Amino acid sequence: MMTSKFKRQSLLVGSRIRSLRKDRALTQADLAHRIGIQQSDLCRMENGEYKVSLETLFKILSIFEMNIADFFNEDTGGAAREREFEFLREFQKLPPRVQDEVQSFIQFKLQSEDRVRDEKVKKDN
Amino acid sequence: MASELETKYSELTAEGSHQVQQGEYRVAAGHFESALQLARELGDQFLIDRATCNLSTARLNLGMIQEAEKGLREILLKNSDNHIIFLASYNLASALRKQGRLQKALLYAKRSLRACESLEKVAWTATCHNLIANIYMNMSYLDDAMAEYRFALTISQKGNLGTSYPVDFIKENLGYCSLLKKRYHQGIATILEALQISLANGNTRCLVECYQDLCFAYMQLKELKRAEEYGEKALAIATERDYKDIQKNCYYLLGEVNLLMENEERSDFFFDKLQELYPHLPVLKQFLRTFDVSNILNLKNPF
Lengths: 125, 303
Hints:
- Chain A is an all-alpha fold.
- Chain A has helices at about 1-5, 15-25, 30-35, 40-45, 55-65, 70, 80-95, 95-125.
């Protein structure tokens, strides 16, 4: 089920904080100061060893002015991420049986696209 | 006249301390404020400092951190009385802890411990070890925290404290620490003991923490119905007593539990409540719906 797939993202939160910090050219000392924790604690947080309060977690989100999609894919553009995320939001609202149907449909469309591409390659050759 | 005022001061202080142990912090603050006023009328600096420290304790528990911290450093500078040093440094440590200044908090907590060791008050010594353990837990040094909690329980037993305050809190914290170490069944057993003690002691604050932490434990064990029941109990008391930190945690926990139960409407209700508290963070609800943050959270981190 899609929900549980995304729930597993929890394991990456620490490393995503590190990556977002680096993207924004923030040192550990800068970010720790802004969050209001010790630098050594931020380091442990990034390594998944330090547990935070809801308050601190929300402060981090606020500091990064974070779009949730930032956690999914840092390489795609903002608008694309929004669209993908909207899709995910709507997908999550579907019952599991319908989610399976949607996934099957996506697989079918991907295979169709592969076939079209293969035929085009054959024709070009 | 002076002796009447002193008697009244003692009564107010005793009643305020009793109310703190019952988790009635607003009532306690009222008693301590009256005691402070009397001490000023008497012009007795020792009583003024003691009342200031007591008022600080009540304010800390009400989340009035800046007000609680006010004057404590001055009291420490000018006092050599171990009773006052214990109270002032304990409260200063608690205030710093609530602001996330954990290294400094630890220094003052240890100073508080040194001061109360000479006073031979087992309950105070146990309370100091409990505070030190809380700071270690906030630092995520869970083994150190557990060792301190256990030591606090050992000296409580040796001092024949039985199940009186602060044994309920110490057991509750130890239980939660076990949960953070993913020893869920062990943690639940310890918290259930704390729950029985806090019910008997009428310690509402400890009771509500027990309910909250049992909700978390059963959520992690995926016994979701039971988790929901404890979460609802915790939220009801927290709302009635205005324990804002617990309310926030319960909104999160109940949102998450209902999400796991696939009660999306109910989950949205609680996440919306949480979202209302953070209007500047419009992604919060969706973030919590998307990520399982339960393994990176410490519900007892006050900052």
